[in-house]
Amino acid sequence: MNPPNPVKYQQGKAAQRPKNLNLLTIRLPVPALVSILHRASGFVLYLLIPVLLLALQTLLASAAGFEQVKAVFTGWGVKIILLPVLWAFWHHFCAGLRHLAMDFHWGMALKQARLTSKLVLGLSLILTLASMWLIC
Amino acid sequence: MLTRIFSFTYHHLRDWLLQRITAAVMALYSMMWLILIMVKPLNSYTAWQELFACGWMKAASLIFIVSLLYHAWLGVRDISMDYIPALGLRKAFQVLVIASLLVYTGWSLFILWSI
After folding, report:
1. How many CB atoms lie within 10 A of CB B7?
2. In this complex, which of B24, B37, B111 lies closest to A134 when CB atoms are compared?
3. Which of A13, A111, A36 is CA-nearest to residue B78?
4. Domain span at A118
5. Lowest-confidence pick of A38-52, A106-120, B3-17, B88-102
6. Is some CB atom of chain B closer than 8 A to the CB atom of A135?
7. B72–A46: do the CB atoms touch at under 8 Å?
8. CB within 8 Å: A62 and B45
9. Inter-chain contact A49–B45, Cβ cutoff 8 Å?
């Protein structure tokens, strides 16, 4: 059996294949979705480092500062902002653990990779809500 | 293996390993906080001050912050390599990121040791 002639192949079947570059009709596989969200959430968390440090500094500086931070976090506006931030943390956390597991060659098969991706998406949502409840 | 990881001519494997080690350190520190929140009432200023006055808390927090900043550098550097093809722009972005992380390191030291 000879492999198909690449030139002939391209002129034949490949030329007739439909081209689809419409991003709205391309669906990401679940592991790819987890992967890009891992990257996006990581970047968001990097951007939030100064906010974390500012909160910690104000919190530890004086009793008045502590009350100030507490007051900020009890406001509803901040809580609504806090929700996606907590999600970014937990998604990055869970997807990171999945990465570490895969470094040990655990869950490498496609079926398992899809299952653990869904697990990461679900678990990070649950942990977001649980930690939100813990803070409130 | 170890000489390869720790020699400066073999960045990829070293970076890969450090990304994982810093991740594990951060995960452990996060778990420590989760336990702290559950066992210790942390709703007053004095409780926070007492907590961060402890030497072990300062040390653990410093190890966490250094891990966080190095982990952030590796991640943001990878992002810049993927999405900023123009060399000058990419290098300028990386310099800004490194500068920000150095400032955060100094800032963290100031916060932790001013209490």
Report:
1. 11
2. B37
3. A36
4. 38-45+75-135
5. B3-17
6. no
7. yes
8. yes
9. no
pLDDT, one tens digit per residue, over A101-127 is 999 999 999 999 999 999 999 999 999
Q: What amino acid is encoded at A17 in this protein?
A: R
Residue A3 placed within a domain: no
Number of domains in chain A: 1
Residue ranges of A 3-62 with Cβ closer than 8 A to chain B: 39, 42-43, 45-46, 49-50, 53, 56-57, 59-62
Residue A131: inside a domain, yes or no? yes
Quick check: is A11 in a domain?
A: no
d(CA B26, CA A102): 18
Residue A100 touches partner B, C-beta closer than 8 Å: yes
Determine the pLDDT at residue B8.
Answer: 45
Q: What is the pLDDT of residues A69-102, one digit of tens each?
A: 989 888 888 889 999 999 999 999 999 999 999 9
Residue A112, chain B, CB below 8 Å: the answer is: no
- ipTM given for this complex: 0.89
* Residues in contact with A132: Cβ distance below 8 Å, sequence separation at least 6, in sequence order: A79, A82, A83, A86
Count residue pairs from A and B with Cβ separation < 8 A: 51
Helix runs in chain A, H state only: 6-9, 15-16, 30-47, 49-61, 63-74, 76-103, 110-135
Find the closest chain B residue to A68 by CA distance: B45
Q: What is the pTM for the complete model shown?
A: 0.85
